[in-house]
Amino acid sequence: MSEDVSLTLEIAEDSMKKAINHLEAELVKIRAGKANPQMLEGIMVDYYGSPTPLNQVGNVSVLDARTLTVQPWEKNMLQPIERAIIVSNIGINPQNDGVIIRLFLPPLTEERRKELVKRCQSEGEHCKVSIRNIRRDGIESIKKAQKNGLSEDAAKDAEADVQELTNTYISHVDKHLEAKEKEIMAI
Q1: pLDDT tens digits, residue range 19-50?
Q2: What is the pTM of this model?
Q3: Rounded CA gap, 70 and 129, in Å?
Q4: Which domains does the chain have, with CATH numbers?
Q5: Per residue in 52-68, is it b (16+ CB within 10 Å) or e — as a string?
Q6: At the N or C end, where does the chain have fewer CB atoms within 10 A?
Q7: Is 32 within 8 Å of 180 (Cβ atoms)?
Q8: Rounded Cα distance, 36 and 58, in Å
């Protein structure tokens, strides 16, 4: 196998791993009944005019299985943090007591569970599309190498390898989605 083909396969596999890592990060943000500080990742707070991640303006911790607390490092940041949580639309209303912000996770209804499963499936579909795009790019790269002198048999073998990689990573996506769906639907 030529260096071009092995490099193409290496790049494709690395990109597919990144797509899976992104999916895992997104699935962690979708709550499954238990409080998790990572649910608040990605929320940006207006910190003196510049958007700053929530975990950089306060301490996020789990009080119990259904409660998160946000302890701001500066007392005057309570209102901006509260506003940022409301605007983020994560489905939780913050309770500000003047010292800390408490986030009580309501028990999940059957309807809400189904919505969360749909959101997980949507994230999974985005990941699968990314993986398929990576496959397409890899196959295009192999076809270019074939035009530049790679034998037809080697090109076919390399395309089969890219397809095998694709199938492997799409099955990883399905396993992640299945596990998350079980976690969400468990009462």
Answers
A1: 999 998 888 777 666 777 877 787 888 888 88
A2: 0.72
A3: 36
A4: 3-29+109-185 (1.10.132.20), 37-104 (3.30.1360.40)
A5: bebbebbebeeeeeeeb
A6: C
A7: yes
A8: 15
